[in-house]
Amino acid sequence: MQAAASAHRLHLFSPFASPSLSQPLAKPCAIRVRNPAAATVRMALREDGPSVAVVGVTGAVGQEFLRVLSDRDFPYRDIRLLASRRSAGKRITFEDREYTVEELRPESFDGIDIALFSAGGSISKEFGPVAVERGTIVVDNSSAFRMVPEVPLVIPEVNPEAMSHIKLKGRSGKGALIANPNCSTIICLMAATPLHRHAKVVRMVVSTYQAASGAGAAAMEELVQQTREVLDGKEPTCNIFKKQYAFNLFSHNAAVLPNGYNEEEMKLVKETRKIWNDTNVKVTATCIRVPVMRAHAESVNLQFEKPMDEDTARQILEGAAGVVVIDDRDSNHFPTPLDVSSKDDVAVGRIRQDLSLDGNLGLDIFVCGDQIRKGAALNAIQIAEKLL
Ligand SMILES: NC(=O)c1ccc[n+]([C@@H]2O[C@H](COP(=O)([O-])OP(=O)(O)OC[C@H]3O[C@@H](n4cnc5c(N)ncnc54)[C@H](OP(=O)(O)O)[C@@H]3O)[C@@H](O)[C@H]2O)c1
């Protein structure tokens, strides 16, 4: 299930592949993902496909939505590209057609079957219900609705049944909200769930190493800028994170709560329980920002109800959908953020028995996943595919 490696893909957010990071994103965006030769054979623009809107199309996740839609030949009748007033009028070339970005308004959802939202929680709270009222199924990337009991929180490889009652308007369904889990939660549970199904996780300890891309396009630009400034002996510009990020790391920038955890850590705790439909599973987390451009890494310690030896764990993970095992002890080769950047699969390695627990009841793993892709855009589009 790796994304097709298209020579035509434009890595707008990779400092290694594109000079565009050093420039503001406020410019016409050319998203030309499709291989032109393939386009003559397969057309994603289909009369019988749903009408799709992308909300927040100029952002890090919004841009990835377009890449993933194209990579997966998602069938759509038409597509509406929405962002703030600042971006209205910008042109985006997508699958050989030019579109104009429109300012998000309530009428933007007239006639829209599926809306992919990634414009932040407050926009989701304001416009999500407006879209639902107009019969649109909203797949939301923000945290706005994740913990609302009647809103399914879905990772398609993990709990697709949670959204089985939701149908498109044209299939005698109606408007609805579906929430995409937090990116760290998705990456963690892609690896932990196959093991959980086998031996039941009773406690999970997660430590994250989170990339700049998780904080959006502006944070990625700031990391590049700061890196240049530090190397040039200048004072680093700190607009997004309020402290030096280049050549440093720090506790996640999410708000710290009265219990001492930050919001990102509590998302891992609460969302795992909802997705696994298990209020008893014990989860604790420490979330850290590291100066990596794209893709999160996580160290995950699992305690099981039933024994789980490391060979069985490796076998289970090798057979798990959306997971790839990189676990070469001899050459000390394990997953890295660069291995998974712009890839669909979550990589797992360092699979080893937890020595501190007797009876093979504990396991340590190290997981890396592209959180703009599987942690956001890909997961949302997999959800949308389930509606087709
Ligand atoms: N980055 C990730 O890895 C990741 C992962 C999972 C979930 N998410 C969630 O996805 C959302 C977007 O994240 P991002 O990283 O893509 O952020 P981003 O790069 O900062 O992009 C934000 C997008 O929201 C749009 N927007 C802002 N204000 C708006 C308004 N008033 N009306 C309409 N559109 C507006 C922006 O449009 P303009 O360009 O016009 O300002 C831009 O397209 C957030 O809720 C975030 O928590 C992000």
TrEMBL record:
Keywords: Amino-acid biosynthesis, Diaminopimelate biosynthesis, Lysine biosynthesis, Methionine biosynthesis, NADP, Oxidoreductase, Threonine biosynthesis. The active site is at 183 (acyl-thioester intermediate), 296 (proton acceptor). It is an enzyme of class 1 (oxidoreductase). The keyword Transferase does not apply. One of its GO terms (biological process) is isoleucine biosynthetic process. It catalyses: L-aspartate 4-semialdehyde + phosphate + NADP(+) = 4-phospho-L-aspartate + NADPH + H(+). Pathway: Amino-acid biosynthesis; L-methionine biosynthesis via de novo pathway; L-homoserine from L-aspartate: step 2/3; Amino-acid biosynthesis; L-threonine biosynthesis; L-threonine from L-aspartate: step 2/5. It holds the Pfam family Semialdhyde_dhC. Gene3D superfamilies: Dihydrodipicolinate Reductase, domain 2, NAD(P)-binding Rossmann-like Domain. Residues 51-166 form the Semialdehyde dehydrogenase NAD-binding domain. GO terms for molecular function: aspartate-semialdehyde dehydrogenase activity; NAD binding; NADP binding; protein dimerization activity. Its EC number is 1.2.1.11. HAMAP family: ASADH. Belongs to the aspartate-semialdehyde dehydrogenase family. NCBIfam families: asd_B, PRK14874.1. Homodimer. This is aspartate-semialdehyde dehydrogenase. It comes from Canna indica.
